[in-house]
Amino acid sequence: MPSSTLSRVQARPSRGYWWYLLPGAIAFTVVVAVPFAANIYLSLTKWSGIGDPRFVGLDNYTRLLHDEVFWTSFRNTAAMVIAMVVVPTLAGLVLAATLFDVIGRRFGPKAASFLRATFYLPQVLPVVVAGILWGWLLRPDGAVNAFAEAIGLGAHDWLGDPGTALPMVMLVMIWVQIGYPVVIFMAALQRVDPDLYEAAEIDGASWWHRFTAITLPQIRPETFVVTLTCTIAALKVFGPVWALTRGGPNNATTVPSYFAYNAFFNKLQVGYGAAVATALTLLIVAISIGFLKAQGRVEEAS
Amino acid sequence: MRSPRTMISIGAALVSLALVLAGCGGQDDDAAQSGTGTFKLWHYESANGAMGKAWDKAIEVFKAEHPGVTVEFERKAFEQIQQNASMILASDQAPDLMEYNKGNATAGLLSSKGLLTDLSDEVTGRGWDKLLSPSLQTTARYDEKGVMGSGSWFGVPNYGEYVMVYYNKDLFQQHGVAVPKTLDELTKAMDTFVAKKITPLGMAGAEYPAGQLYYQLALSKADRSFVDNYQLYKGPVSFDADPLKYGAETFRQWVDKGYVSQRSASLKAEDMGTAFIAGKTPMIVSGSWWYGRFSSEIKKFQWGTFLFPGNKLNAGSSGNLWVVPEQSKNKKLAYDFIDITMRPEIQTILGNNGGVPVNADLAKVTDLKNKELIANFAAITAADGLAFYPDWPVPGYYDVLVAGGQSLINGSKNPQQVLTELGKAYEQGVSEIENG
Amino acid sequence: MSTLTLGRTRAARRDPDRYKQGAARWVVLVLVAFTAALVLVPFAVMLMNAFKSPADYSGNGPLSWPESFQLDGLRTYWQQVRFEGKLLNSIVISGAVAVLGVVLSLLNAYALGIGRVRGRLWIVAAFLLANMIPQEALVYPLYAMAKATGLYNSRLSVIIIFTVIQSAFGTYLLASVLGTFPKALLEAAALDGAGRWTTLWRVVVPTVRPTLSVLLIFFFIWTWNEFFIPLVMLVDNSTQTVPLALASLQGDRLMDATTTNAGALISLLPTVVFFLIFQRTLTRGVTVGAVK
Asked: Does C202 touch chain A if contact means CB atoms closer than 8 Å?
């Protein structure tokens, strides 16, 4: 590729740019930093949400370590990462490239836009409503079972059996999530120089070869962004689980955020909820920083 | 391409417009404190339910009697009141009068933190206590720790609710089943249906119905002292002995025998109710809150109700409470409104729409079914038979009960394991309450 | 600016015949269309139930075809929740957050991606914290702060909070994208004597407009569908948003399924319309790569 096109701005840190960070920094301090510090303080107290918190030191954290449900919720997070990061990112890449490269060029950009909007639609649906709709489809006398029986499989209580509840929640999460990478990747593909494809086609490169040699490297920044933000979303997922199963059956689909929410607002143990939230945040921060560092290295190397 | 200057100015205009819109209208200026001014009222009953209809009428009456007052009524999201009541009531945005859930974890907690007005003087002064039987009063009074049953009045209920059996008369007739009078007869009736490949009892594992059936079964072996121990912490509760052991084991037996579907663990109460309305289910064990909906939506068959056979104690309680926030700016108007909802003319509307009134003019309740509903409730309260609900004693116990019920339905745990878990959460929660 | 050309026109004009051959493209189309149809199934269910009468829904279940076409659910919902007010609130909040969020993201990303200020990895990580913290953790402190400043139950509080939360994502995405910004363009601007501020608006913004459009759409739709923080911060009818209105149909023990579906349909429309309008800007982007 022509080096003059894509070479980066020189890494010359310049003081004048600091001013641009000022509004963001002030807003961030007020809305995020201060409340989060307050949350850390709350995690060291016992508090029902009303009156004065009572300081209890690290009690909430020691209790957390022995809470089975808490550990179950963390194990389920791994499943959420598969359903909300791995599958949507991979499928999103292929779909976006197909829509852009095949559908967009051979059937016109209108068809591609229409299909993109379709895939994005689940992102727009309020999550509570999505929960009700999927509940109808998956319930024992629902459409999924009607289909399963028609092709000779027996009916099943998909969300009621601890063995199948988690896979079903994962399926719904993929459905919810898929539109997000598709839209971002398709926007990313707009940035790619069409001449690169042209040159590759003249060389007789296959679609797959073009995809791996041009598309993937070109939209790498967006790929990183999608992967990291999806990972964060997966680690703190709450709404769909709340709407679909409320963490059941018997905690089979519970996740850390639901666990924290439950402590905050159902059990009125705000201190304990704050401890769960803090632990979860630390985990997310650790993963994110590792990720950002890897991204930094890749960017420097390329 | 647009020049950057126009882009910036368009952006600035949009933002300032938004900020102007956002800034104004946020707070309502509290016009006056006296008999004129505004009266802010919140509840979360649906408009076409018994309570919704009765209270709409009460608002009309209130307006007629207080011509100078503007009534600001809002129908709230249940979720919002459930989750944020303490935040709202601790701020200057609190309403003057609000519907709120009864129980230690809700009204009890807020009263113990000084967010609710002590209504004792009004209650005796206006004679509301005379309209409410002792078991209805239990949920209206809270002590300093916020435990129900004694202490001052912090809420006023004006209707009741209880769990019973709804049945499909057509299906009973078609299969030659009589209305059971005892638990034995009930099991025989269910055997008849199972033999004909019909699941006799509708169930919903993902929500309250499973916990309520477990509790109903336990109550069949219980007396008042068990309820006092379990609900009011008057004594220890054993989770590996009857009545709770009987409740969990019998529940599991009923699943094994096919009375309850093994595939109902993921169902919600709504699914159970609509299956009954569709005429697919011979019976469901659930509360009076379905009554109005069944009356208006079941057209294709005859249906009826009977009390859970043989039980002296039944899950049930007063309805939700009217509470007056400490921050209310117009308490006098709030008391006037409560008073209106207690009048026979309003209570009769409740009774005629499938609600359970506490002070209705029964002569004016014409529908035979509604009469039966009210008579059954009167019979339960007369016999001191309201046992409240199984998830009440401990905050957050609802989820534990749902998890336990699901395990009993899908067989992932045996009754012993389920009881151990229920016991553990119960004891932990009670010790938290008692140690403040 | 004259160095930039529209990428799409170039791509579309290029030797169209080569793409029109072979059956493979039809196979691809059918596969993608089939997947898209599967994605739409739950929406079909929603549509079916939005136009049913409550008795029809209760008697025949959610998966049956409506007995008759009813608009009652839609009407009930609109009147019962006073939808027009909620609609205005949602538009004001989401619109303000979308615009402010994009501006804030752009300023941050300009310093991080193009300015390459020292320690940018840590600054990006710090900003991203807004995205990483579970919202439950922020609620009690934010409530206390809003109450202290008189912003409790005002739309402004929600606008401020979500501007920050959304811009965390925007900062990260834009900073990554601007990290690969072509040096040639910046140099050309510098030669023309443009300062940083002018360069930002005249060179950077036009070039990354597709990404800015993505951000605008995402911020609007994400903020529109936010439930938890608005539920805590917005207390009464004069300030509440569309999703909160929808939630008021879910009672303590009962729900109103047909009205909920009708409500969902109405609540969904503004965001879908918004997406369809703005998705045109996604394809009309000016490509960076077209620089010669």
From this structure: no
- CB contacts, 8 Å: A49 with chain C: 140
Nearest CA among C243, C109, C267, C236 for reference residue C180:
C109
CATH architecture classification, B161-316+389-434: 3-Layer(aba) Sandwich (3.40)
- What pLDDT is stored for residue A284 in this prediction? 93
Report, as an integer, the average pLDDT of A129-135: 89
Partner-chain residue, chosen from C58, C61, C238, that has the shortest CB–CB distance to B28: C238
Domains and CATH numbers, chain C: 82-248 (1.10.3720.10)
pLDDT at residue C40 in the model: 95
If you compute the radius of gyration of chain A from its CA atoms, what whole number of angstroms results? 23
pLDDT digits (tens, 9 = 90+) for B155-190: 999 999 999 999 999 999 999 999 999 999 999 999
C137 vs A contacts (CB less than 8 Å): 35-36, 39, 260, 274, 277-278, 281
Cross-chain CB nearest to A48 (options B82, B109, B263)? B109
Q: How far apart, in whole angstroms, are the C-alpha atoms of residue C2 and residue C5?
A: 7
B261 sits in the region (left: phi over 0; alpha: psi -120 to 50; else beta) called beta
Low-confidence stretches of chain C (pLDDT < 70) are 1-22, 282-292
B266 vs A155, A159, A265: nearest CB? A159
- The reply to whether omega before B390 is within 30° of 0 (cis) is no
Domain segments of chain A: what residues?
A: 3-43, 60-301
C143 lies within 8 A of chain A by CB: no
Asked if A69 is an interface residue toward chain B (Cβ–Cβ < 8 A), one would say no
Superfamily for the A60-301 domain: MetI-like (1.10.3720.10)
Residue of C nearest to A237 (CA): C134
H-type helices in B181-301, by residue range?
Answer: 183-195, 208-219, 224-232, 244-256, 269-277, 291-297
How many CA atoms are closer than 13 Å to the CA of B400, on its beta-carbon side? 24
Per the CB < 8 A criterion, the answer to whether B110 and B116 are in contact is: yes
Residue B247 is predicted with a pLDDT of: 97
Assign A207 a pLDDT band (cuts: 50, 70, 90).
confident
Contacts of B49 in chain C (CB under 8 A): 254
d(CA A245, CA A252): 9
In chain B, domain spans: 27-158+319-360, 161-316+389-434
Minimum Cα–Cα distance from A284: chain C residue: C132
How buried is residue B280: exposed, middle or buried, by Cβ count under 10 Å (0-12/13-18/19+)? middle
Contact C242, C226 (CB under 8 A): no
Specify the CATH number of the domain B27-158+319-360. 3.40.190.10
**Chain A residue with Cα closest to C172:** A225
Residue B248: predicted pLDDT: 97
Of C81, C239, C254, the CB nearest to B293: C254
B neighbours by CB contacts (3+ pairs under 8 Å): A, C
Mutate to test the interface with C, among B24, B51, B80, B91 (most CBs of C within 10 A): B80
| Topology alike, domains B27-158+319-360 and B161-316+389-434 | yes
pLDDT digits (tens, 9 = 90+) for B297-341: 998 999 999 999 999 999 999 999 999 999 999 999 999 999 999
The per-residue b/e assignment along C161-180, b for 16 or more CB within 10 angstroms, e otherwise, is bbbbbbbbbbbbbbbbbbbb
Among partner residues C92, C231, C239, which is closest to B18 by beta-carbon distance?
A: C92
C-alpha distances in Å from residue C266, one per residue of C129, C224, C239: 34, 13, 19
Distance of CA C109 to CAs C93, C112, C116, C204, Å?
23, 5, 9, 11
Q: Which residue of B has its CA nearest to A263?
A: B396
CB atoms within 10 A of CB B347: 26
